[in-house]
Amino acid sequence: MNYNDFFWHDAIIKNIQIDGNNPGIKDTMIFEIKWPEEKGRTTFVFEDIYSAEMSLNIGIVSDETILNSMQLEENNEYLTNFYSKWKGTKSNVKLNTYIIDLNSTGGKKNYCKNIKRRYNLATAKTGNSI
Question: Which of 45, 46, 47, 119 could disulfide-link to 29, CB 3.0 to 4.6 Å?
């Protein structure tokens, strides 16, 4: 399934993990998402991350709910601005842009090479690329 095909509205971010055990070699962020209407949970693994920008509510008694999330087209303004900061040193690196807009805060942006979906509990499949 394509990342943009998921129905994100009111899904809840239950867990975010940053794996920095092998910096610069294997940089990953893991998001555990609880789907609305008791449709289970899914874990998304953003692989080979080059940058992540986050604005989250911390210390507030409320779930961090998603308004919408999407993978942007290859030639988007965020990625163009991101590449310009490298001044050509990494222009050969092909990245994807993922945006998660939250209901209560600005949300987050990820610039990474790949994303995988891990099915939780109810499904036997694991590690499928999106």
Answer: 46
Asked if residue 121 lies in contact with residue 41, where contact means CB atoms within 8 angstroms, the answer is yes
Write the pLDDT tens digit of every residue in 74-125.
Answer: 888 888 888 888 776 766 788 888 888 888 776 666 667 776 666 554 333 3
CA distances from 32 to 42, 46, 118, 127 (A): 6, 11, 9, 14
pLDDT at 19 over 80: yes
- Six token digits for residue 24: 């610069």
Contact, 27 vs 48, CB < 8 A?
yes
Distance set, CA 41 to CA 51, 64, 117 (Å): 25, 15, 11
Contact between 129 and 115 under an 8 Å Cβ cutoff? The reply is: yes
Angle among Cα 100, 106, 107 to the nearest 5 degrees reads 25
Q: What is the identity of the amino acid at 67?
A: L
